[in-house]
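Weekly modeling sync, notes
Attendees: S.R. (lead), two postdocs, one rotation student

Agenda item 3: backlog of single-chain predictions. S.R. asked that every request posted to the team notebook include the full sequence so nobody has to chase files. The rotation student volunteered to paste the first one in as an example of the format we agreed on. Action items at the bottom.

Example entry:
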Amino acid sequence: MTDQRPTVPSAPRRPVERTHHGDTVVDAYDWLRDKDDPETIAYLEAENAWAEDTTAHLADLREQVFTEIKDRTLETDMSVPVRHDRWWYYSRTVEGRQYGIRCRVPLAGPDDWEPPVVEPGATLPGEEVLLDSNEEAEGHEFFSLGAFSISDDGDLLAWSVDTQGDERYTIRVRRLSTGEVLPDLVEGAAPGATWSADGRHLFYVTVDEAWRPHRVWRHELGSTEDDVLVFEEPDERYFVGLGRTSSERFLVIAVGSKITTEVRLLDAHDPTGEFSVVWPRREGVDYSVEHVVVGGRDQLAILHNDGAVNFELVLAPLEDPTDTRVLIPGSDDVRLEAADAFARHLAVSYRRDATTRLALMDIGDDGIGAPQELEFDAELFTCGLAGNAEWDPRYLRIGYTSYVEPATIWDLEPATGERILRRRAPVLGDFDPQDYEQHRAWVRADDGALVPLSIVCRRGTPRDGSAPGLIYGYGSYEISLDPDFSISRLSLLDRGFVYAVAHVRGGGELGRAWYDQGKQLAKKNTFTDFVACARHLADEGWTSADRLVAEGGSAGGLLMGAVANLAPDAFAGIFADVPFVDPLTTILDPSLPLTVIEWDEWGDPLHDPEVYAYMKGYAPYENVADIEYPAILAGTSLNDTRVLYVEPAKWVARLREVTRAERSVLLRTEMAAGHGGVSGRYAAWRQRAWELAWIIDTATRVTGAIPRNS
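Predicted structure, as returned to the notebook:
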C-alpha cells in the first residue's frame, strides 16, 4: 500500500452579501472566519499539507539554510550588562535552549561604571537568575514574555506571559530576595506593567473586545480588594499606554490615535493620586513628554507637531506646560523622533536624508545647550540609544548597525566624546563585512517623487541581470525600515542574491509628509513606489523580473497583495507574511480587532463613500483577476489578533478559484502562534529557513540553483 499524497485544497463557496453605499459585494469565503468550525481547521490543515507536499523537494535546502543560521550564531551568549541602581542586569542564551535567561549581579560599589565581562557559559560571583523563560515555557507550544518590571528597591519582579499568541498576558510577582512567587495574579492584561516608587502598587493595562488597550488599573500588592480603575478611554480611536519617565519621577499614561496624543502624569511617589493632563488632546496634535531638571527646577521636554509638521522640541515648566520655549525648531528636512532625558543631557533622535541621527544636548544650571550630532563613518547605518537605565550615568550607551555590520554597542563618555566598544555581535564562521557592499539609490516614482532604495549584495555580484533578488517593503504607520544586520540574510547574499529595501511612501524615512503621501486617499502611492523600485532593480541590472521575489508582512502584506494585482510581471514570486489582504472587509467592521483606530490610517469606508470606493480599488482580495500571477506564498498564524488568519485564507482560496493556479499559490498557517510567528529561537530559525528556501527556489528556478559561495 502506498501513501496517499494530498490533493490541492478547494474551499467550498458559501456566498454572503454585504452592501455599503449602494454597492453589493458577494463574498464566497468569509465562512473561514469561524475558527471554531471544524471545516475551517480542516481547510487550513489541508493547505499546510499541500504546501509541504509542493515544497518537499526543498527539504534538504531548508535544512542547509537552518544549519547555516545556527552555525553562524553564538548559541551560548550574553548581552552587555546594563547598570541600574545597585545592580548590573543582563540576559543569557544557552545552546540548545529556546529562550533567554534574565540575570543580575551586584555592583562592586557606587563608582562601578565598567560593566563586568562575563564569558558566555560562565557565571559571576553573586549572580542571580531572575527569570528563566525556558522554565516558564515548559509544556507550552507558544511562549511570549511581556512585562519584566523590577521595583525601585530591586526586590520585586513583575513579569507577564502569553502562551497562546493572542497577546493576552498573565502577570505574576516574585520576591527576588526569597524566590517566593506571591499570590498576586492578573489575567488578560496587555504586555506591560509599571511599579509605583514605593513598590506597593502595580499599574497595568487591559484591552477591550476589539483588542484595544483602553483601561489602566492599579493593583495594591497583597490586597484582596478589587483592583482600582485609574483611567478609561472610551473613544475607540485611541490606544492607552503606560510607563515612567526616564527620571522615574513620574508615572505616564499616554493616550494616542494615529494622529493625536494626550499625556497624563502622576508623581510615582503618590500612586493613589490623580493623573494630570499635560496638554489636552487636539485633533492632529501628536506629542511626547520627558521630565528634565534644569537648575534644580522640574521642567518638561515636549516633542510635538503643533505647527511643525516634522516636530519641534520645546521646554516648559512642570507647573505650566503651556509656557513653552523652543529648543529645536521644526524643519522641512529633519524629522525629530524622540527626546530622552538624563540628569545632565538630552539625547535627541531624528532622521535626515532617510537616515537616523543622534545628538546630545548638555543640561546645565543655566539652561540646555545646542544639539551636537554624533558622527558615523558609513553611507547607510542605524544609530540610537541602547539600554540606558540610569538617570545620571557616567556613560551613555549607544547602538549602531548597518546592512553589512553586526550590531555594535558603545559606551560614550559625553565629557570627552570617547567611545568605548562594549560589544560587536559575533558572527561565527568566515564572515567578513568587507565581503559585502551596500548602496542607496533614489528611484523616480510615477509622479516624480524620489524614493530611497537600499541595496545590499556580496562584492563582485554581477550587474547583468543574472543575479536573483529579494525586495522588501512595508510603507505604513510612518514606520521606517532602517538598515539592520541579519545572519539569516547571509544565506541569500552568499548564494548571489541582491537584497533591496524599498523605503516607499507611507513609511517615515523622509518625514511626516512622506507618511501622509502614502495613507488614506494617497495609499496607492505606496504600491506604485514599490513597483518603481522593483523595475529599477531590473533596469539597472541588479536582477531581472523573472529572478526577483518580493516580501512584506502585515501592512507590508497588503503591499504584496496590491502589487501582485498591479504588476504581476515585475516579480517571479511574492511572499506575503501575516498579510492584511482583505482590508476593506476588516475596516468596514468596527467590532473586529483594531478597526476603528485604523480609520486614521486607511480612512473610514463605513461612513465615507469616497474612501470605500478608493479602498475597493486596491484591496487585494477584492481585485483578484484572471491574470498570470507570480508564485505566491502566504504565511499566517491561527491566533494572530492583529491580522486575522482569515484574510490570507480567503485570499488564497480566491486566487485558486479565479486563476486555477495550484502549486504556484501556497498558504502556510502556524497553528500555535501569533502575529510574530512561532516562539523560540530554534523554531523561528526553522520557520525562516522554510521561507528562505521557497524564496531561493522561486528566484533561481529559471537557471537552476545558484551554489552557495564558500
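Discussion: group reviewed the output briefly. Residues 681-700 form the longest helix (20 residues).
Action items: rotation student to repeat for the remaining queue; S.R. to check formatting next week.
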